[in-house]
């Protein structure tokens, strides 16, 4: 991650992260810093929870890789400490007829 050195009036330096240091530090939907980072169940791409939740109301498909998803992991505090938002409307993915592709 890229850091810039900022010097105050006394000549002391302090490090701060640049807002545009990495595309991975921004939500691909709102293009702002992550707010309650969330991951999709299939591809694990990351978004703000609010952004991807709103997106899922129109289409339950990853905006980056177009893979369908059924749940969003968010409020992650640890490996086994997170919340899962399960999409209730699976009508977006109608069951396929036997033998159809």
TrEMBL record:
It comes from the Eukaryota. SMART domains: RING (SM00184). PROSITE patterns: ZF_RING_1 (PS00518), ZF_RING_2 (PS50089). GO terms for cellular component: photoreceptor connecting cilium. Keywords: Metal-binding, Transcription, Transcription regulation, Transferase, Ubl conjugation pathway, Zinc, Zinc-finger. Its EC number is 2.3.2.27. Residues 1-22 are annotated as: Disordered. Residues 1-10 have a biased composition (Basic and acidic residues). It catalyses: S-ubiquitinyl-[E2 ubiquitin-conjugating enzyme]-L-cysteine + [acceptor protein]-L-lysine = [E2 ubiquitin-conjugating enzyme]-L-cysteine + N(6)-ubiquitinyl-[acceptor protein]-L-lysine. GO terms for molecular function: ubiquitin protein ligase activity; zinc ion binding. InterPro entries: Znf_C3HC4_RING-type, Znf_RING, Znf_RING-type_Topors, Znf_RING/FYVE/PHD, Znf_RING_CS. Residues 27-66 form the RING-type domain. One of its GO terms (biological process) is protein polyubiquitination. This is E3 ubiquitin-protein ligase Topors.
